[in-house]
Specification:
Blueprint (H helix, E strand, L loop, with lengths): L3 H28 L18 H4 L2 H19 L25 H23 L5 H21 L6 H26 L4 H25 L13 H43 L12 H17 L1
Length: 295
Amino acid sequence: MGTLEGHLLPGIFFLVFSLYYSVQVSLALLRKQRFLKAPLPPREKRGHTWWKLIPGEGMVKIVLSLTGILAELYYPPGVNRLKIVDWEDPQRPFLFSNNWPHTTIYSFYLLSGVVDIVSQSCQARQSMKLERAAEALAFFVLALMMLVHNEHKNALEVRVHILFVVPTFLVSLVLTIEVWVPDQPPLWVLKTWMALVFSTWMLQLCLVLYVPPSGQPWRPENHEDLAFLPIFFCWHLGLGAGILAAVYGICSLWYHRCSSWTEASGSKYQPCPTGYSSEELEKLREGAKLQDEVV
């Protein structure tokens, strides 16, 4: 990850995931859903087709994490960084201290993907607490690795990484709270907002360390350059809020347009009162309400 590509690709992946969750949260708020993601039914009621049994998010986590791990250990081709200790040196020094923290981060996201698949595909009932706990652990590891990833770095890199830790830690904290207090809309919004912030900040990190727009590199010894980093980070807080608000606005337009079209076409389910007793009518009304909540 110590290259432009190593920071740019994870930043893009995190940004795509954050936008995906922004859409999910926006639609859940518009529909007044009790759950951000409805729990899966028992395994025997899900059918036997493979795309219904294998969770897409878990597979994406595994594929992207494996790609990151292989890139850290074997890219460029011909390089092998799998060895941690140089056993040929009498002092037994550690090797590749810049690559193994990133490999550790990817490994815990890989673990989160495996937990998603085991919970949703292998267990009789989905364990959402276990999934949230594994995801929270991955973000805690990311925050910890970025916090201690400052040895032999200049002041500019240290400050950039410390600012990166702030939204990452908040996301991991929210995920930890959701293990015991799930399905709280304010937590959905805070988690998505902070995810957008650390995604855009990772892309900003590429501009600061590798391709400054001015063409002149940042000067680690210059106090004015360092002073502007927290200013830019605060702008990213506003940018994340703006992106989330824009996604909510687009989803709101789509949702209300879709709702008006559905009502005009008369395709909304309505219980028919003829020929039913009062008890049966009450059951039908409850079923219609539950269906509207799910939709």
